[in-house]
Amino acid sequence: MDRALPTPTPETQHFWDGCKAGELRLQRCTECSKTYFPPRPFCPGCGSRAVEVYAASGKGVLWSYVINHRPRPDMGKDPHSIAVVKLQEGPTMMTNIVGCPQTPEALQLDMPVEVVFETFGETALPLFQPAKG
Amino acid sequence: MKQKSVAVVGAAETTKMGKIPDQSVIQLHADAALNAMADAGLKPSDIDGVATAGASPVELAHYLGITPTYADGTSVGGCSFMLHVRHAAAAINEGLAKTILITHGESGRSRVGAGGFGRNPASLMGQFEMPYGVTSPPTMFTIPVLRYLKTYGLTEEDLAMVAVIQREWAAKNPRASFKDPITVDDVLNSPMIAWPFRMLMCCLVTDGGGALILTSADRAKDFPQKPVYILGTGESVETPMVSQMEDFTSSKAFRVSGKKAFDEAGIKHSDVDHLMIYDAFAHLPLYGLEDLGFCKPGEAAAFIRERNTAIGGKLPLNTNGGGLSYMHSGMYGMYALQESVRQMRGIAPAQVPGAKISVCHGVGGMFAASGTVIFSNEA
Fold first, then answer.
1. What part of A 65-104 touches B (C-beta under 8 Å)?
2. Which one of A7, A75, A83 has the shortest CB-CB distance to B121?
């Protein structure tokens, strides 16, 4: 079964294009400097439309998660993490933690993680792995 | 809203509860509505306002043969009915309608005439949560909890204790789905659903419904049942995506809704005799007790462990057994409201002696929305 994938909208296209290009693109307000997520063409902090897209560090920490023992058919058969990372730039983002055992012992809150893009057909999803060095 | 200007004069659940494979969603709404009308001594032609979620108020009105001058289709998840009560009270005070029917019906288990769980892949949730394997609430509502546990040095045993104590309440309730006592070990040995959540930390999935009828306090005196007055109400919404909650250890929607309701009611926490906190999962009573201000942040688990919310405790909580043991069709808020009304009428199976004020607090979506209703049985 094919992985459930996003359908980009005009407001989110830059984010998904960025993933395909290997860049985690966030937006920030040029008036109040707030970085926010998910994408929209105005600042949810102050309402300004003066916002810019930039390439974020792709680094963060594991903020919280569950290990789903009843995976959706498109997610395979093994238990897997559904996680939220807190990005260095501030926002939180849902993802999967990959590149390590899917166990409470391997998945410690606050451990540093970094983005890795995995391609599914025409889409690249931003997943995170334990940071290397 | 004005305190005690509006009252519940009809309240009932569906005739059957649990597994109802011979009734569709809209019939469950109607069954509960007819029971509530019988409770209030009314016919459909006496109702001039309708509110519901899940089904549309149009579907409901037409199916029951009601011609309303007020219709509320607010649909923000399982606490929608708390918002319906709030809106109905304002509408009655404003003269938009005199007698408002609020219904819930859901074929959560049997799925008779029920819709699917599909989500639009172009919605924000479809783009930024669905690709990572979220399924139903057990993989979404639970996501903030490890952060909450770490912040306050709590463990899965603290989650288990919530389920254990609510089962004690359920044992006193003939209509509860699960009545046999359980221990913390039973909970921690039940099947893993989504770490750290085991099956007995998750709500039931059942069929059922409920309905309420509200009218002005002036008219309420002429109805057959003891009126249950609306003392204060609150509502708020935060985010459609649990990953975007501002604080993983506290719900902003809970805090805003709860404070508004307490302010409107003009009461202190020590005035509260009975409390319902929508418990789709075992962590919700912990967040609720703290966000409503009954406990300081991080102290709710100890409060429950010390049996303050258990039978004989100073703050009886989820006295029907809750979504964990009583029933949970999907949008549980209506059943929490029904239990508050029963407690205020003095007819609950696990009646809190002399209870005069009941706080009923609901959640919608995955910490997406919240509604709070404070009831009093004194005019």
1. 65-72, 74-75, 79-80, 82-84, 92-96, 104
2. A7
Rounded Cα distance, B198 and B283, in Å: 12
B63 an active-site residue?
no
Domain range enclosing B104: 6-112+204-376
Q: Do you find a cis peptide bond into A104, omega within 30 degrees of 0?
A: no
ipTM at complex level: 0.93
Three-point CA angle B27, B30, B32, nearest 5°:
110
Q: Which of A1, A35, A66 to mutate to test the interface with B (most CBs of B within 10 A)?
A: A66
d(CA B156, CA A60): 26
Per-residue pLDDT tens digits for A12-52: 999 999 999 999 999 999 999 999 999 999 999 999 999 99
pLDDT exceeds 70 at position B253: yes
The CATH number of whichever domain residue B227 belongs to comes to 3.40.47.10
Q: What is the pLDDT of residues B23-65, one digit of tens each?
A: 999 999 999 999 999 999 999 999 999 999 989 999 999 999 9
- Sketch the domain layout of chain A as residue ranges: 8-56, 57-133
Tell me whether residue B40 is in a domain.
yes
Decide yes or no: CATH 2.40.50 for domain A57-133.
yes
- Whether residue B14 lies inside any domain: the answer is yes
How many contacts, defined by CB atoms under 8 Å, are there between A and B? 108
Task: State the Cα–Cα distance between residues B221 and B89, nearest whole angstrom.
Answer: 16
- B-contacting residues in A 12-71 (Cβ below 8 Å): 12, 16, 37-38, 63-71
Domain count, chain B: 1
Return the SS3 of B266.
coil
Is B139 inside any structural domain?
A: no
Is B151 part of any domain?
no
pLDDT single digits (tens) B63-99: 999 999 999 999 999 999 999 999 999 999 999 999 9
B332 classed as catalytic: no
Q: Which of B126, B146, B193 sits opposite A69 (nearest CB)?
A: B193
Confidence band, pLDDT 50/70/90 cuts, at residue B119 = confident
